Amino acid sequence: MESIKPRRGLVIKDEEAHVFVEGFVKKMEAIAAEDLEDFQQGKPMLKKLQMLPEAREVMEKFQFSDAFIAYGGCKVLAVWLQNLPSGQLPSVHIRSVLLECMERLPITKDALREAGEPRLGQVVAKLQTHPEETPRNRKRARGLVQRWLRQIMIPDEADTLEGFLAEGDKVGSIPRPPPETEESLALQEEESAKRLHPAVPVIQGKEYVIQPISTAQPIAREKPAKDTYQGKLDEVLKVMARPNKRSWKPYSVSIAGRQLNAE
């Protein structure tokens, strides 16, 4: 019965979260160093794989995300993802889990800059073009790199909504009509009684500003070669997407269906 008992989830109080995450990051660094020693001694590197489920549980918790990045999580992720001394990539399971968790972590350009060596951005950038990386992981790595580059290209004031609205042009609001009172209604009736012709309606011009301004950048995609499977599939889809228009004929069938009518 003990073997089939479900594993209890990680339960940490909010006041103990920072202390726990700081110790956990140091534990991840120590595990990576122990795995490196095992590799140099010719032993299998199993410690990171054994710790991976716990690391995934910590990184997926929302209450730990900010503390994980603040206490050096970017450097630890780079150490776990960097190539082995022999030049080979780490375990594909480790790469897949860490890249999936990094998509949810609040990794900013300041955290990447202050993390130090090895640089997480450089490690992930190499994975997006590595020939031995899986297509799914290359796609995730490419998305992470584009997100970080977008943060670098946008000024600091535009990183938050408050800073964007403070620095941007002030948006004018439509003036509210004054509240109707007994005096205002009586004044309108008096003006209507004195006027000998209907009042001409005047349409007031209003200027509208679209906010917020879109900062999305299109994703550049390479056109596949025609001799590849993707290129051949694209050509077939183009043929299938052509409009199926009926060719013109100089005659048409009559409504009764007994003869052909010349056009």
Provide structural commentary.
With 263 residues, the protein is mainly alpha-helical. It has a domain at 14-158: Conserved domain common to transcription factors TFIIS, elongin A, CRSP70 (Transcription Elongation Factor S-II, Chain A, Up-down Bundle). The protein is 50% helix and 2% strand. It is built from 11 helices and 2 strands, in the order αααααααααααββ. The chain has helices at residues 17-40, 47-60, 62-70, 73-81, 92-102, 109-114, 120-127, 135-153, 161-167, 182-194, 229-240, and strands at residues 251-253, 260-262. It has a two-stranded antiparallel sheet. Helix 1 (17-40) crosses helix 3 (62-70), helix 2 (47-60) packs parallel to helix 5 (92-102) and helix 7 crosses helix 8. It starts with 16 loop residues before the first helix and ends with a strand. The mean pLDDT is 80.
